[in-house]
């Protein structure tokens, strides 16, 4: 199976291609803006390196948020066009899941995945040591999030960890782990593992909080 994974929801653009369970080409570029300019060129670079045409791809994976509103929309639109042209389906991977998948084994306690929402309030979700979610995704001030964390060992992961660690300084059982950035190869792997969840067209975006800007087509008509 050939799977293309894309991520533009975070602080960068990433594209990776898996063939028969192995990553054969990948590109990642950190950036705060410019996702719309760089994502498709990265896709073309990865396909050229792997010697794969868009029509050869069997399945697409994409981060479905939360994250940057603009980057998230760019990624979903790009994968929607690619999948439509190839006649293939798409698996949406929540950004929390992509971070959690690269964390590695956690012996005990709670895992807090924190994503930088480009404000003082991170996007966050709590998981148990086995990776099962403990409640819904949240977007709250760091101090309010800290008050919701159960006692015991705590592992903090994600590119928003720096927003939480200062308010957790009083706890002796906190560790930071895992890569900060989402790996598009992980997005591709999770998409392959969740192929039974594939759908036609882009997955719905997970915003957690209302976006700062709303596309004209989605705005409610004025009374």
TrEMBL record:
* GO biological process: one example: tRNA threonylcarbamoyladenosine modification
* GO terms, molecular function: transferase activity
The Gcp-like domain, residue ranges: 32-125
Is Transferase there in the keyword field?
Answer: yes
Record keywords, A-Z: Transferase
Matching Pfam families: TsaD
List the PANTHER family hit by this protein, alphabetically.
TRNA N6-ADENOSINE THREONYLCARBAMOYLTRANSFERASE, TRNA THREONYLCARBAMOYLADENOSINE BIOSYNTHESIS PROTEIN TSAB
- Protein's name in the database: tRNA (Adenosine(37)-N6)-threonylcarbamoyltransferase complex dimerization subunit type 1 TsaB
């Amino acid at each position: 199976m050939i799977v293309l994974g894309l991520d533009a929801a975070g602080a960068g653009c990433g594209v990776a291609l898996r063939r028969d369970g192995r990553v054969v080409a990948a590109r990642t570029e950190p950036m705060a803006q410019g996702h719309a300019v760089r994502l498709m060129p990265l896709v073309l670079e990865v396909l050229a390196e792997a010697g794969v045409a868009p029509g050869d791809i069997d399945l697409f994976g994409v981060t479905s948020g939360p994250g940057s509103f603009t980057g998230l929309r760019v990624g979903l639109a790009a994968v929607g066009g690619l999948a439509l042209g190839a006649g293939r389906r798409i698996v949406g991977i929540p950004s929390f899941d992509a971070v959690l998948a690269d964390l590695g084994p956690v012996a005990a306690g709670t895992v807090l995945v924190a994503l930088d929402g480009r404000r003082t309030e991170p996007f966050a979700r709590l998981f148990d040591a086995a990776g099962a979610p403990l409640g819904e995704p949240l977007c709250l001030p760091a101090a309010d999030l800290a008050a919701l964390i159960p006692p015991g060992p705590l592992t903090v992961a994600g590119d928003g960890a720096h927003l939480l660690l200062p308010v957790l300084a009083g706890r002796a059982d906190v560790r930071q782990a895992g890569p900060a950035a989402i790996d598009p190869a992980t997005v591709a792997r999770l998409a392959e593992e969740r192929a039974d969840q594939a759908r036609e067209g882009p997955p719905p975006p997970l915003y957690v909080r209302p976006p700062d800007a709303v596309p004209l087509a989605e705005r409610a008509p004025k009374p």
